[in-house]
Specification:
345 residues; alpha/beta; Metallo-beta-lactamase, Chain A; seven-stranded mixed sheet; 8 helices
C-alpha cells in the first residue's frame, strides 16, 4: 500500500491539459459510505513502536530555546480586501484557516478560531481576523476530522443553515450538531455553490493523509483537499493536510491552470514519523510545481505547536526552496497571519 516517490527537481512545469470534470452532485444529498476508508491510505499509519520511539526521543515539541523565536512570527491583522463578484481574494486567519472571497461568496476553510485545540498548547499567534469582522459566511469547506482542522467550538458560532462541504463519512457528525445543509463528497466529486456571478464549483480531491477523532474511528471518514473554480475560471487549490506524493501531479493534470495553491509547510519534524502525512517546505514547493500552480501561499505553520521544528524554520526553508526554483519572488505569497492578497483577473 505504500507508494515510493522521488522528490522532483524544482523548476517550472508546463500546465497540463485539463481532464473532463465530473458533473456536480446535488447539495445536501443523503449517501451511504463504507465503514472504513483505510484502503485509501498511501502509507501505513504509525504503530505502537513508532509512538514509543517518539516518546523515547523526546521530539514531540521544539526545544525551549527555539520557542523564543515565536515572538518574531509574522502577524499583521488588517481589514479584509474590498471585493466584488468578479474578484478572488484570500486572507490567512492562521494554520489551515482561510477566508476565501470568490465569485461574490465568502468561504471558510478548516476554520479554527479557538485559542486551544485538544492535545496542544495555546496557539502561538492570534487569529488573523476577528470573528466579529467576518462577512456572512456562505459555505465552509472541511478537509478532514483532525482537531486542528475540524473545530467544533468554531463551527458552533455559525448559523445552523450554513452549508458545510465535508469529506465522505462526516455528515453524521455535523447533523448531530444540528447543521441542516450538509454535503459529503468522495474524491473527484464536486458540487456548485450558487453565487451572484454564477456558480462556484467546489471539487474534493485526494490527499496523502488519514483521519481520526476518537479511539475507535480511525479512517472512518475520508480526507482530502478542495479546488474552487470561480465563475470567471480562476482556480484556488486548498490542500488541507497532506504528505508529498503522486496526487499533486494527478490533480494538476485534471485541473489545468490552477492560479493559487494553498499548501502546508509545517508540522514535519521528525521526518521518520511525519514524512508520509505532512509536507516539509521543500516538498510543498515541489508540490506547487507538480500542480502547475502559478502562485503558492504557505499555511499550516506558526499557529499551533504540533511537532519538533522551531516555529520560524518553515518560513526560512520555504523561501530558500522557492528561490532555488528561479520562479518570481512575487509568486510566493508568504503571508503574515491576517494577511490578504487579491488574485489578478
Amino acid at each position: 500500500m505504500t507508494e515510493q516517490t522521488e522528490r522532483p527537481v524544482a523548476g517550472p512545469r508546463p500546465l497540463a491539459t485539463p481532464r473532463p470534470l465530473a458533473a456536480p452532485r446535488p447539495l445536501g444529498e443523503n449517501r451511504l459510505w463504507p465503514k472504513s476508508f483505510a484502503d485509501r491510505l498511501t502509507a501505513p499509519l504509525p504503530g505502537v513502536r513508532a509512538l514509543a520511539r517518539l516518546a523515547r526521543e523526546g521530539r514531540l515539541r521544539p526545544r525551549a530555546e527555539a520557542l523564543r523565536d515565536a515572538a518574531a512570527l509574522p502577524v499583521a491583522p488588517g481589514p479584509l480586501p474590498a471585493v466584488d463578484a468578479r474578484t478572488t481574494a484570500v486572507t490567512w486567519a492562521g494554520h489551515a484557516s482561510w477566508i476565501l472571497r470568490v465569485g461574490g461568496l465568502t468561504v471558510l476553510t478548516d476554520p479554527v478560531w479557538s485559542r486551544r485545540i485538544l492535545g496542544t498548547p495555546a496557539r502561538l499567534t492570534p487569529v488573523g481576523v476577528r470573528w466579529e469582522d467576518l462577512p456572512p459566511v456562505d459555505a465552509v469547506l472541511i478537509s478532514h476530522n483532525h482537531y486542528d482542522h475540524l473545530d467544533a467550538p468554531t463551527l458552533k458560532r455559525l448559523p445552523r443553515d450554513t452549508p458545510l462541504l465535508l469529506p465522505a463519512g462526516l455528515a453524521r457528525w455535523a447533523r448531530r450538531r444540528r447543521f441542516t445543509r450538509v454535503t459529503e463528497l468522495d474524491w473527484w466529486e464536486a458540487v456548485e455553490l450558487p453565487g451572484p456571478a454564477g456558480p462556484v464549483r467546489c471539487d474534493f480531491v485526494p490527499a496523502h493523509h488519514w483521519s481520526k477523532r476518537t479511539l475507535t474511528d480511525t479512517c472512518r471518514s475520508l480526507w482530502g483537499g478542495w479546488v474552487l473554480t470561480a465563475p470567471g475560471g480562476q482556480r484556488v487549490y486548498f490542500a488541507g493536510d497532506t504528505g508529498y506524493g503522486h496526487w499533486f501531479e494527478r490533480i494538476g493534470r485534471r485541473f489545468g491552470g490552477i492560479d493559487l495553491a494553498l499548501l502546508p509547510i509545517g508540522a514535519y519534524d521528525p521526518r521518520w514519523m511525519l514524512g508520509t502525512v505532512h509536507t516539509d517546505p521543500e516538498e510543498a514547493v515541489a508540490a506547487c510545481q507538480d500542480l502547475g500552480a502559478r502562485v503558492m501561499a504557505p499555511m499550516h505553520w506558526s499557529t499551533f505547536i504540533l511537532s519538533a521544528e522551531p516555529p520560524l524554520e518553515p518560513l526560512h526553508r520555504v523561501r530558500a526552496a522557492w528561490e532555488a526554483t528561479g520562479r518570481p519572488r512575487e509568486d510566493l505569497w508568504d503571508l503574515p497571519v491576517g494577511g490578504s492578497r487579491v488574485l489578478p483577473r
